[in-house]
């Protein structure tokens, strides 16, 4: 199996509307749905939810 099929690179965009993004990898077998992580947004200056965009 190719490397990018199982663990694709995904962009996590801030839900605060600042446009800030994180880039990470995820395992499709364990997380088939869109990923949501709570991370720090330096533009907003606080922790907010970051949602996977496609």
Keywords:
4 strands; ribosomal protein; Rubrerythrin, domain 2; mainly beta; 7% helix; four-stranded antiparallel beta sheet; 1 helix; 54 residues
Could you explain how this protein is built, in words?
One of its GO terms (biological process) is translation. Belongs to the bacterial ribosomal protein bL33 family. GO terms for molecular function: structural constituent of ribosome. It comes from Streptomyces phyllanthi. The protein has one domain: Rubrerythrin, domain 2. The protein has one helix and four strands. It has one helix at residues 3-6; strands at 9-14, 21-25, 36-41, 46-53.
Name the structural class. mainly beta
Radius of gyration, Cα only, in angstroms? 12 Å
Main beta sheet, described?
4 strands, antiparallel
How are the strands ordered across the major sheet? Answer: 2-1-4-3
Which class in CATH terms? Mainly Beta
Termini Cα gap: 22 Å
Mean residue pLDDT = 92
CATH topology term: Rubrerythrin, domain 2
Order of secondary-structure elements = HEEEE
Indicate the CATH architecture: Single Sheet
Query: How many distinct folded domains?
Result: 1
Q: List segments where confidence is low: pLDDT < 50 over at least 5 consecutive residues.
A: none
Summarize the SSE layout with pairings.
Elements: H1 3-6, E1 9-14, E2 21-25, E3 36-41, E4 46-53
Antiparallel strand pairs: 1-2, 1-4, 3-4
């Amino acid at each position: 199996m190719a490397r990018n099929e199982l663990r694709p690179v995904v962009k996590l965009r801030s839900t605060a509307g600042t446009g800030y993004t994180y880039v990470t990898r995820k395992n499709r077998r364990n997380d088939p749905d869109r990923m949501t992580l709570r991370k720090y947004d330096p533009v907003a200056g606080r922790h907010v939810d970051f949602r996977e965009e496609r």
